[in-house]
Fold this sequence. Notes:
The protein is of the alpha/beta class. The protein has seven helices and ten strands. It has helices spanning 9-26, 41-53, 85-96, 113-126, 163-171, 191-195, 210-218, and strands at residues 2-6, 31-34, 62-65, 67-70, 103-104, 132-136, 157-160, 185-188, 199-204, 237-241. Strand 2, helix 2 and strand 3 form a beta-alpha-beta unit. The model is unreliable at 171-175 (pLDDT under 50).
Amino acid sequence: MKIRLFESADECRSAVAMQAIAYMLREPNGAVGLCTGSTTEPIHGMIADIYKKNPFDASGIHTVNADEFLTPKHPDYDGIDITMRPGMYKNLWSVLGIDENHGHMPDCNPADWEAEADKYEKTIRDIGGIGLQILGIGPDAHLGFCLPGTPFGLKSHVEQISKELTEDSIVGGSRKIDPKWGPFYGITMGISTFMKGRQIMPVTVGSHKAEAVQNAILGPVTEAVPASVLQLHPNCVWYMDKAAAEGILGRIDESMIIK
């Protein structure tokens, strides 16, 4: 495991965007794993801005989202799908000219939730796996919708979304979702799916992520801290600003830091 430190959140995100572009140029038919949380979503816009200034053929690139909401099955729900797909299309796919068939996300309203999760796992295998996996890390060190306690061995699966994730991702989104329609669920890549990425770039910014960073990097590898499993990945480079790193500075081997 290596670490790249940056003075600010914007510098950190910009560096991740540049690495994503570099991967796409190096692997024109490769697959990039993406997240849509508050840490990593701004990176999509940065990638798009870089592309606009220096366009290239991205038509062979695949993107693979870490997770997707499932439309509530509550009998009184209004039936409008909850999905991150429009944002992905507007902010990234349409700009880079990525065909929606190459923009991979689970169906947000399948007839069989578990079957859709299995299908998503197969899709990832069928495209050759993920070459570059960009990951946001939650304040509790969750990965995708894999919350503390999620078994490391799980592949893509259905997960109940926590109250905190619901407020951040759904209520804070384009339309307010009444909690009475919950509990809410989503399909997420499993931790074992994330770990199959050939290169992993966790991204953490802000002091509110410092505890998660500290537990994930300095603590034991435990399912109580999902991101701690990244200690075991052979090609993992964390990107973080100094605020997120405040709990590990002076406590890690200096050789871990990429100058």
